[in-house]
Structure formats: structure tokens, C-alpha cells
Hints:
Layout: E1 2-3, E2 9-13, E3 19-20, H1 25-29, E4 32-50, E5 54-73, E6 89-112, E7 116-139, E8 154-177, E9 181-192, E10 201-212, E11 225-239, E12 251-258, E13 261-268, E14 279-292, E15 297-309, E16 312-316, E17 325-329, E18 331-348, E19 351-369, E20 376-377, H2 384-387, E21 388-390, E22 398-401, E23 404-407, H3 411-416, E24 428-430, E25 445-448, E26 454-464, E27 467-477, E28 480-483, E29 535-537, E30 540-553, E31 561-575, E32 596-597, E33 606-614
Parallel strand pairs: 28-32
Antiparallel strand pairs: 1-2, 2-3, 4-5, 5-6, 6-7, 7-8, 8-9, 9-10, 10-11, 11-14, 12-13, 14-15, 15-18, 16-17, 18-19, 19-26, 20-21, 21-22, 22-25, 23-24, 26-27, 27-30, 28-29, 30-31, 31-33
Amino acid sequence: FDTDENGQLVASYSGPGIFTQPNWYRNLMESTNRTKANRLLANAFAELKFLNDFTFKSSVSLDILGSNRRKFQPSTYGVSGNAPLNRAQAEYATEFYYSWLTENTLNYSKTFGSDHNVDVLLGYSAQKFIQENNILTGIDFPDDEVQWIDAAAIKNGNSNVGEWSLLSMFSRINYNFKGKYLLSASIRRDGSSRFGADNQWGAFPAVSAGWIISDEDFFNTSSLLNYLKIRGEYGYAGNFNIGNYRQFGNISSTNYVIGGAIAQGRSPVSIGNSQLTWETTKGMDVGVDLSLLRDRIYFTADYYNKTTENMLYQVDIPTAAGFPNIQSNIGEINIWGYEFAVGHKLVNGSFRWNSDFNISFNRNKVIKLGTNNTPIGGIGEQGFTSYWKTEVGRQMPLFYGYVFDGIYMTQEDFDRSPKNITSAVGTTKYRDLNNDGVITSEDKTFIGNPNPKFTFGFSNSFNYRNFDLNIVMSGAYGGDVFAFRGWHTILDGNFNVIKEVADRWRSIEDPGAGFHARTLSGTTAFGRFTSSKWIHDASYLTVKNITLGYTIPGINKYFSKARIYASVQQALILTNYPYGNPEASLRGLSSLELGFDGTAYPVPRTYALGLNLNF
């Protein structure tokens, strides 16, 4: 808070885009965003065993949700690009969905002689999901007092429904001989409503085998190596997660003026693709499991290699087609890696210590993109199509943009350096990678990789008498994060700014640290959002959880056991990343848009005390 010489509040800041003055402060605190929801989850099954070796099981599950949300933003609430005062806004939204799933399986299990064990499964499942959304909005409220949409001068509404269904038939056979030769084969056939009528179905077979060598007579089980198994598998898997109705050309309500009057009508908003079909991943995995010193130490190693074909993605198309993109099966990517896990169990009297460590090395390479291998992304100066680029022969995805080269500190520096038409002394300088003497979009290049070289996890549990201690850690090495702070270096007054901006270039006599540019109309937008200036190493080690507990046995005749504990989550993070959370990824787990930190809140450190009682 800022105060005047009398100690009175004159202005307050409350996050990006919010600027308030004292007489508005009460209304700001009365901003509402309330959600009420009722959800029903139900499961039921019936099982029938007959003829000794057969089991039929039928199950049904149901998920129903009904919710409503009421939101009101007073005129004192700032929004992106607009500081207060703004027109008050309100929303009232309802959501209803239900999903049901039924599965029916017939299982046959038989042992022939004493060595041959067979298990056969046949099954059929059906699933359906329907969701309805309705929203009412209102703007131009006369004041911030009455917050219901009925008080708004302008009211609008929207309603939509989405649904999808999935049918599946599947079978599996498991066989083992003497419990040491293992073989499994399966196949499933799935049909999804999200694909074109001629391509709704896909078949996905798989096979796996294993050999427990340590069960062989020739294997000399010793106190050093007492278990050894090798295994492998090969198979196909399908993906249909593309959203609803992408196979159709969609239409939307559109108004037009005819004879001076508004006429309601419809217009197309997307191109359909009746040839859409399943994205398919085929892959293999080989591994080994072993244990040492009477199972006190175990070790697991895996190598996998898989190829995803017919990738589902929205492909950009020429705007002359009337639409920006089309959903398509566009390409092929190869993914491979190594995964290792090791653990141990130590028991020494009343002291026990278990630990587990795992580490993964994952890589990928783009093999094909569409018919012409046209890259995805890397377009424009701002927006999510500009921050990443995916192209054939490289990992997916990579950050793309200009190489930051400091600030034009003096007139002499400016005169002798390549520059953009909008550049000036005190603005950001970028490298001229094609050596043509000017800075243009042709100088963009790959500037970072969000894929870490490896990730790892480490957990330990200790027990001594009635005390227990658990520590969980995880980390990654080598990946980058695009720590976007472009909006928070602008001095237009719409946003809070990061503190480093105080050391920006102000003049030749006061050039600052050479990292943040001046603010000068018409000169500072170029490259502001897509440059290596925002790329940071995101290597980290995090202590995710520490829990200390004490168990009290047999308190009284009512309680057989009680345990009290204290825990802390996000206890410690070791990283050079400057903005709080190196695991931030605004676009979630989207495989083409990883590692973007859009000023997300850091993960909070949470302390807890608890009590468990056993009756």
C-alpha cells in the first residue's frame, strides 16, 4: 500500500491488471465468484460363477454433475489491458453433465495338470458422455451495489451441448508354464463417435512375454542374486481425445442486414474432415527385474521405443480457404527412452529404512508432419503459435524466437549494430543471424528446449519403534522454461511490473543494467514476447513432502490405535529458476506447448497437523 504524508491510503495494488483507489476498495473486496455443485458417483456390479471355471461380471457406473456459478466484477476490477475504472460485469452459468459406463466380461480360468495355467477374458463395454452449458452475461450496471444480471443494461446468453460415445470389444489370454514362462496376448476394437463415419473403428493388438530365470534349476540362487526376470512387450494403442464434432463442418448463428432490418441466419465456422481417424501408437518395451541380498535391494531397468502415427492436430491452412485451420491426422513422431529404478529395505532390530530411487531419460524426434512436412507454430510475434515450433528432424516442441543481445546502450552502438525499423537507442537488440544487416522475422531461431535431459524421484521412509518419517523428493535436469514476463515490463500503467524494470534503460547517462529497454511509443513491441530473454534453465530438486508421525497403540477399549503426525508440503526447492515454480506449464501437458510460465502462482508451502484414530 502507498500512503500520503498523513498516512492515508492513496493507492493499492492487488496483482497484475488491478489498480484501485481508496473509495473503491470496499467494492473490490466484494467481488464475487461463487460456485455451487452437486455430484453423484455410483457403481454397481453383479458377478456369476458357473461351471467351476467361468465367471461373468456385469458392472455399471454413473457420474452426474449439476452446478451453477455466479460471478460479478465491479467497476473497480482491472482486467488485462484495461486499468479501472471499467464497466461492471456479471455472469451466471450452469453446467450439467452425465456419463455412464457399462462393462460386461466373461472370464475362463483353468489349470491343466499342475504346470499349465490359462486365463481367458472376453469383454464388451459402452460409454456415453453428455454435457450442457448455459451462460448469461450482463454489462453496463448503473453501480456496483446490485450484482444480479437483471440490473444490467445489456444482457446476452449462450447455450451449448456436447456429447461423445465409445464402444469397445476386447479379449485377452494369459498363459504361464510352471509360473516361470509367461505369455500374454490381447486385442481390442474401439469405435468413437468423434471420427468420420468411415473411420470410427480401430483395432489395437498387443503381446508380452516374460521369463523368470531365477526359477530355473540351473540358476544358482545365492545370497547375492536371488531373483532375475526378463520381459518384453509389443503393441498398439489408440487416442481419440480431439474434442467433439471435429469431423463435421460446424455452423454458428450469424446476423445480417437485409433491407435495413437485422435477419438471423447461420454461417460456417470450421471445415469438417470426414477422414479423421484414430491416432495410433505402436511400441515395444524390454526390461529386466532383479533383487539382491535376500530381496533387500531391487533393481529394474526398461528401454522403450514407440512411434505415434496419424497424430491428431489442428493444421494451419491458407486464410483464402476462409478458415484458419482444420483438424487432421498430420504426422509421425518417434519417442524412446531409458527408465531405471532401485530400492532397498533395511531392517535392524526395531529400526527400518526403505528407499526408492527412479530416473528416466526420455527423447523424441519428429519424423513426418502432414503431406509437405510443414512446421507447426513459430508464426507471428505474439500468442501461443509463436512461442514454440515443431519441425521434422527435431525434438517436439522447441522454443522459437529472437536471440536477445542486450540493449542499444549508446548512439554509437545503435549506429554500428543491425536493427529493426522500429528500433531506437535504449530499445532491445537482437542478433542478426542471417547477416543481412537488419533484424526481421528471418532472424528467428530455436532458443530453448522444454524437454529435460532426465527426471528423477527419491523417497525414503524410516521407522523406529513408534516413530515414522517419510521424505519424498523429485527433480529434473536440463529443461528450459519460457518465463514470460513481457506484459510485466510495460510502463503504460495497465499492469504491475517486475522489480527489475526499475533498473531499465532511461538515458545514455542512466543506461541501467542493460537488460530491460526503455518505454518509447512505436519502438518496444518488436520481439518483446518471443526472445531468448525469457528462457531460463528449469533444473530443480524439490522436497515435495516431509511427514513425521508417532503411533500410540491400544489407547483404551474404544481405540485400538492412534497416530498423530505433522507434515510440510513443498518443503524445499533448489533451483536457479528466478520465478518460483520451474514446473510451471500454462498449457498443461499439451505435447506441442510445454514449459510456458505465464506468471502462475508458485506452489505454496503447506503445513499440516493430523490425527488418525482406529476403532
